[in-house]
Design a protein that fits this description.
mainly alpha, globular
Length: 71
């Protein structure tokens, strides 16, 4: 019984460690993109692409743009 409890605790810790924290540049980019998303001006692809309707998609776009800027 103790083995199962320890294993579930270890799994929870490992999941928390693998989750990335938003820091610095990423945090600023996400806040900027979310502002565009809330205003209804965020588009996928280019300026003529379809409007982003999903919050998850908006965050994915922000993280992608932050990675591109780093390179």
């Amino acid at each position: 019984r103790h083995g199962q409890k320890n294993q579930s605790v270890l799994m929870a810790i490992s999941r928390a460690q693998t989750r990335k924290q938003l820091t610095g540049r990423r945090k600023r980019k996400v806040s900027k993109v979310m502002k565009e998303y809330r205003a209804g001006k965020l588009r996928s692809g280019s300026k003529k692409g379809p409007k982003v309707k999903s919050k998850k998609q908006a965050i994915a776009i922000a993280l992608s743009e932050a990675r591109k800027k780093k390179a």
